[in-house]
Amino acid sequence: MAFPSDSQIAAGVVMQPIEEIAGVLGVAPDRLVHYGRYKAKIDLEPSETGKTGRLVLVSAITPTPAGEGKTTTTIGLADGLRKLGKTACCAIREPSLGPVFGMKGGAAGGGYSQVVPAEDINLHFTGDIHAVGAAHNLLAASLDNHLYWGSPSNLDSRTVSLRRVMDMNDRSLRSAVIGLGGRRQGVPRETGFDITAASEVMAILCLSRNLADLHERLDRILVGYTSTGQPVMARDIGVAGAMTLLLKDAIKPNLVQTLEGAPAFVHGGPFANIAHGCSSIIATRMAMAHADWTVTEAGFGFDLGAEKFFDITCPYGGFAPCAVVLVATCRALKMHGGVKKKDLSAPDPGAVARGLANLEKHIENIGKFRVPAVVCLNRFPGDTGEEMKVVTDRCDGLSVPVAIGEGFLRGGEGMTDLALKVMEASECPGKAFKPLYDWSLPVEEKIEKVAREIYGASHISFTPDAREDLRLLEKHGYAGLPVCIAKTQNSLSDNPDLLGRPKDFIVTVRDIVISSGAGFLVPITGDIMRMPGLPRTPAAETMEISAEGEVTGLF
């Protein structure tokens, strides 16, 4: 008998009214802003309870293109902790329509570890991402309007760094020329589009502590320079207040539920390869203020979202995880062991063993932050006992706790062993979180520290453009910001073809973008792009809705 699809599993669950889910956390009904019966936003005030629960971060080894079930693990672990009698919830990111309609599909978990209503979450949800896009594009339109009418800020059109955004994968819009058609159509200039998840406004939303902080960060977005080389900020364009107005509801965390009735915060959606890749600080702090255990995730492998979580999100948020769950799969290890994508389903313990170097590097990286690690080996159909034993034996040899993750197959019941090991690891004495680097270090040194220690690079190279960017950011006082390196998710290096644990490679920084509102610098490496493209056969081509409203192919 075939295993039911995610949508079939979700359809068989009777959801609880959202006020009941809020009640589990002690959130009063009058703080809820309802979006139907099963999803709501929570008003920000009062946001503190005097309680600070424990935080667990879920990350992963370098993933296959399909992902290794990190969100599924995050949801399943929250359900598993609840099975052990703990008050637990999860805090995850909102799905972007780009990946939903592209290759990866939805981001609401899978199997028996999902957040629901999954169809709503994977599509427009409560409109947060659209609000981010509207606020960002308001600034872009106002900027061009300034240029058209003779900018009072003396903005030089040749220096404008702000691009427009949309929540869709569209490679055709990566580069564009606007303002064509004569004097009445605007000022001609080169620009382009990024995906909304890469917008600095998205990062600002996720790193803000409150509405006032949001407004202040929007004010200081750098959009370009004057003809004399002075920075021009969003506050000089004059629409930061209107941008904040567009985001007044988006800043409020969204509350939904898992299939087993655990509270789930789904808020914010920056990617980890081109942004900082973590859920919002507001959602995480709110979850920790109302639950004994909060399980959150960071995008892609530990070298991307988790490093940025530790070095950017934790200092801004004022929290730190008590443990890291590192998700691994036999299929990903086989890929790092040299097996081609089409052959990953075939048993191959030898390839699993060869791929362990990637797992070992990520475990080593977790130790650099002085936080205990627990490996979750997600079980996939077709995984053999011999393959899984290769992994568990190696973890035992490294003295790292390991549990078989069966959240997809069994929900919370399949994650209680992981939950127990996480609880035990969280009690380890002598563990004290510490970021990888001090923000006061020179920018080159911060980039080099991440590239050498986390990626394993032997050398870092800066293009002439990147050198000029360094000169400008130092001149204008931005050198004290942390670095949010944009890098491929497919390798520890900046070359997506280098699998396993590559050595003796060079990381090339070609540009450094100043995200002054978000409060970080974005060194762009390799061929990474901030606007993805669709695959040859997008997921959208398999989606349909019947006359009766039945959705197929979405997840």
Structural class: alpha/beta
User: What is the averaged pLDDT score?
Assistant: 93
Oligomerization: single chain
* Share in helix: 25-40%
Unreliable stretches (pLDDT < 50, length at least 5) are none
Termini, distance in Å?
20 Å
Largest sheet: 12 strands, mixed
Radius of gyration: 23 Å
Count of runs of 4 or more consecutive helical residues:
19
- Count every beta strand, where a strand is a DSSP E run of 2 or more residues: 23
The outline comes out as globular
Percent of sequence in beta strands? 15-25%
SSE diagram, text form:
Layout: H1 6-11, H2 18-24, E1 32-34, E2 40-42, E3 54-60, H3 70-83, E4 88-92, H4 97-101, E5 109-110, E6 113-116, H5 118-122, H6 128-149, E7 164-166, E8 176-178, E9 189-191, E10 193-195, H7 200-207, H8 211-219, E11 222-225, E12 231-233, H9 234-237, H10 240-246, E13 254-258, E14 263-266, H11 281-290, E15 293-297, H12 302-317, E16 323-328, H13 330-336, H14 349-367, E17 373-378, H15 385-397, E18 402-405, H16 407-410, H17 416-425, H18 443-455, E19 459-462, H19 464-475, E20 506-515, E21 520-525, E22 544-545, E23 551-552
Parallel strand pairs: 3-15, 3-16, 4-14, 4-15, 7-10, 16-17, 17-18, 19-20
Antiparallel strand pairs: 1-2, 2-13, 5-6, 6-13, 8-9, 11-12, 13-14, 20-21, 22-23
Helix pairs in contact: 3-17, 6-7, 6-10, 8-10, 13-14, 14-15
Structure overview:
With 555 residues, the chain is α/β, with parallel strands linked by helices. The chain is 34% helix and 17% strand. It has 19 helices and 23 strands. Strands 1, 2, 3, 4, 5, 6, 13, 14, 15, 16, 17 and 18 form a twelve-stranded mixed β-sheet that branches. Strand 11 and strand 12 (231-233) form a beta hairpin. Helix 6 (128-149) packs across helix 7 (200-207), helix 6 (128-149) packs antiparallel against helix 10 (240-246) and helix 14 runs parallel beside helix 15. It is globular and about 70 Å long.
